[in-house]
């Protein structure tokens, strides 16, 4: 098992480095990474393209793919459900409703849209956790039902925002945000995403033992000293904070957090801390590939969420056919 893990991690690290170099070089305007490294790049436009466009979106693709996949692995472990994903508690829908509200009422500026998405996502998870308080706090199904209810509520708000939106400008801005994209990411936005999500992600990794115990039955988890009433909402809220901090900047990114954990378990035939890290590396690779294709396949840039779905759906189908079950 250790030998297989080592080979898998080495392969993923090599593929990650290869994709990083490729992502920094390719696009509508080609930049020579070799010239940049050797200090031979003299054209100011090359510097501008590299530091203001390529580098920020490459870093965001790698980190967002890693973080969303890691959170997806946590969600599938906690809920004991292979279909669980980072937005199971209505986080993505809450962010979408908040972003739409920011576009309509706040003029569509970066700060208003990002703040609206972040607040909407955090309100969604807060409401979901609130609905599971009291005697429902230790029942796993209650969190799923609360997530479904919050998701339905947020979707209703989103549809209302679309109905109120100006068809010529605001509606198209909402739809474009919902499709996700890394084209407008800057180094400042990358820093903002890291500031909001990295502390929560580190805390989740420190809680890895508790996450693993939650994959057992509730009775076994309690026998091992885990307080379901406390630890489950804490892990869910931290996971939501990671997702909210990232998608408030990138827009909705589909399938990454669902597919990458499946691939990791398929490769390692287990589900533990090592599998979660492999899932993160796979997610980073998938989002890097999707972003590279998004800006090279056609003259106009394709929203990245379209490509993550196009790549993720066939992979999920192949997994279902190969294993006979999810």
Could you explain the architecture of this structure?
It is found in: Cell membrane. Its main location: membrane. GO terms for molecular function: transmembrane transporter activity. One of its GO terms (cellular component) is plasma membrane. The chain is an all-alpha fold. It has a single domain, classed as ABC transporter involved in vitamin B12 uptake, BtuC. Helices cover 76% and strands 0% of the residues. The chain has helices spanning 2-25, 33-38, 44-78, 91-105, 110-131, 140-164, 170-179, 187-206, 208-213, 218-223, 228-250, 256-268, 273-294, 304-323. The chain is globular and about 65 Å long. It starts with a helix and ends with a helix. The mean pLDDT is 85.
Question: In summary, what is this structure?
Answer:
The protein is mostly helical and 326 residues long. It has one domain: ABC transporter involved in vitamin B12 uptake, BtuC (Orthogonal Bundle), CATH 1.10.3470.10.
Secondary structure class reads mainly alpha
Question: Total domains, how many?
Answer: 1
Q: Please write the string of helix (H) and strand (E) elements.
A: HHHHHHHHHHHHHH
Name of the CATH architecture: Orthogonal Bundle
CATH class: Mainly Alpha
Low-confidence stretches: none
Oligomeric state, counting identical vs distinct chains = single chain
CATH homologous superfamily (4th level) name: ABC transporter involved in vitamin B12 uptake, BtuC
Strand content: under 5%
CATH topology: ABC transporter involved in vitamin B12 uptake, BtuC
Q: N- to C-terminal separation?
A: 22 Å
State the total count of DSSP E strands.
Answer: 0
Radius of gyration: 20 Å
Q: Could you tell me the mean pLDDT?
A: 85
Percentage of residues in helical conformation: over 70%
């Amino acid at each position: 098992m250790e030998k297989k893990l080592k080979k898998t991690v080495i392969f993923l690290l090599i593929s990650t480095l290869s994709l990083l170099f490729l992502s920094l070089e390719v696009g509508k305007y080609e930049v020579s990474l070799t010239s940049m490294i050797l200090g031979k790049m003299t054209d100011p436009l090359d510097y501008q393209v590299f530091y203001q466009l390529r580098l920020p979106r490459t870093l965001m693709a790698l980190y967002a793919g890693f973080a969303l996949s890691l959170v997806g692995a946590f969600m599938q472990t906690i809920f004991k459900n292979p279909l669980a994903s980072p937005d199971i508690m209505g986080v993505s829908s809450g962010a979408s409703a908040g972003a739409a509200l920011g576009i309509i009422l706040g003029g569509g500026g970066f700060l208003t849209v990002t703040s609206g998405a972040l607040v909407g996502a955090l309100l969604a998870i807060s409401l979901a956790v609130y609905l599971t308080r009291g005697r429902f706090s230790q029942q796993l199904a209650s969190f799923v039902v609360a997530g479904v209810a919050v998701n339905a509520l947020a979707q209703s708000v989103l549809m209302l925002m679309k109905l109120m939106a100006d068809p010529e400008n605001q509606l198209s801005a909402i739809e474009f945000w919902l499709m996700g994209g890394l084209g407008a990411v800057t180094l400042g936005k990358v820093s903002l995403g890291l500031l909001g999500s990295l502390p929560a992600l580190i805390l989740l990794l420190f809680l890895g033992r508790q996450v693993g115990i939650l994959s057992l039955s509730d009775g076994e988890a309690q026998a091992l000293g885990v307080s379901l009433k406390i630890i489950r909402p804490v892990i869910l809220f931290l996971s939501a904070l990671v997702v909210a901090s990232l998608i408030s900047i990138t827009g909705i990114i589909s399938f990454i957090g669902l597919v990458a954990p499946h691939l990791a378990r398929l490769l390692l035939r287990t589900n533990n801390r090592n599998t979660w890290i492999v899932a993160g590396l796979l997610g980073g690779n998938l989002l890097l590939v999707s972003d590279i294709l998004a800006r090279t396949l056609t003259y106009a840039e394709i929203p990245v969420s379209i490509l993550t779905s196009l790549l993720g759906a066939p992979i999920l189908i192949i997994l279902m056919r190969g294993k006979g079950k999810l």
